[in-house]
Amino acid sequence: MTSILLFGLLAAAANVLGGVVLVKAGAHHWGERSLKYLVALGAGFMLAAIFIEILPVTIDIWTQTANGQPSAEAVLPAMTLLLAGYLAIQFFEHTLAPHFHFGAETHPESFMRPSAAYTAVGGLWIHTFFDGVSIASAFLVNFKVGILVFIAILLHKMPEGFTVASIMLAAGRSTRAALTATAAIGAATLAGVIAIGILNTRMSNSVGYALPFSAGVTLYVAASDLIPEVNYKEEGNPKVSIVVFGGVALFYLLHKLIEG
Predict the structure, then answer these.
(1) Residues contacting 111, CB < 8 A, separation 6+
(2) Range of the domain at 111
(3) Of 31, 96, 192, 225, which has the most beta carbons under 10 Å away?
(4) What is the pTM of this model?
């Protein structure tokens, strides 16, 4: 569990780093240009991780639970949890929060009321909590799944920190408040790791439930948060979109190289 906490801490630190990139003098435009490529790479890597690694592992877990008999009925609970994870982030990020997207906030009028900014940050807090759940659940399956999921999560951690700091600044909060918010979402990642560690000691099949739900969260982040941001940032430049395919290729390469 100590090694899993270390990976969670590294992911949390990347959140804070993303906020620092934004608030440091002169870093805004450099950071935004660089992060759009990181967003694209992360989106491709995350999508590949879900469909090539996490879902097959999840189906295998639930098939074994059903006495090794593969069937639609056996994996229905897992697919239901996947959908629930996806819809949960839709609710917290875009139903409760009035306005949310990854990257620098370009619509400060949306956050004139501080409560609106805190609601958006709260939605992101839920999302980052399940980043931690994903990391811990994957490592509890095996090292290969864990390290691949960790890399997938890590690739979008800086954009998360960049986003939350941007939201706070758009609401008129101080740079200190912006960095505090990034530290809070980093702490949420650690909380997710710890929660799975505790749950796993009390519930032997906890990973079978946590992994598909957190995969639904990751799918939402990749397909509904990151990919639209890539398409928006592309602005006729295909290089950004090509990086998405590079993320898929990078995952496939690491999937072949890393031993289970």
Answers:
(1) 99, 105, 117, 120, 167, 170, 171, 172
(2) 2-257
(3) 192
(4) 0.86
- Tokens 């993303």 correspond to 18
Residue 151 CA to residue 239 CA, distance in Å, equals 22
C-alpha count within 13 angstroms, C-beta hemisphere, residue 28: 10
Residues making up the chain, counted from first to last: 260
Count of CB atoms within 10 A of residue 235's CB? 8
The per-residue pLDDT string of the chain (260 residues; one tens digit each, 9 = 90 and over) reads: 778 999 999 999 998 988 887 777 545 555 566 778 888 899 999 999 999 999 999 998 888 876 666 677 878 999 999 999 999 988 887 776 655 555 554 454 454 456 667 777 887 888 899 999 999 999 999 999 999 999 999 998 988 888 888 888 877 788 888 889 999 999 999 999 999 999 988 877 789 999 999 999 999 989 988 888 888 755 556 788 899 999 999 999 999 888 65
One-letter-per-residue 3-state SS of the chain:
CHHHHHHHHHHHHHHHHHHHHHHCCCHHHHHHHHHHHHHHHHHHHHHHHHHHHHHHHHHHHHHHHCCCCCCHHHHHHHHHHHHHHHHHHHHHHHHCCCCCCCCCCCCHHHHCCHHHHHHHHHHHHHHHHHHHHHHHHHHHHCHHHHHHHHHHHHHCHHHHHHHHHHHHHHCCCCHHHHHHHHHHHHHHHHHHHHHHHHHHHHCCCHHHHHHHHHHHHHHHHHHHHHHHHHHHHHCCCHHHHHHHHHHHHHHHHHHHHCCC
Find out whether 217 and 125 touch, Cβ atoms under 8 Å.
no
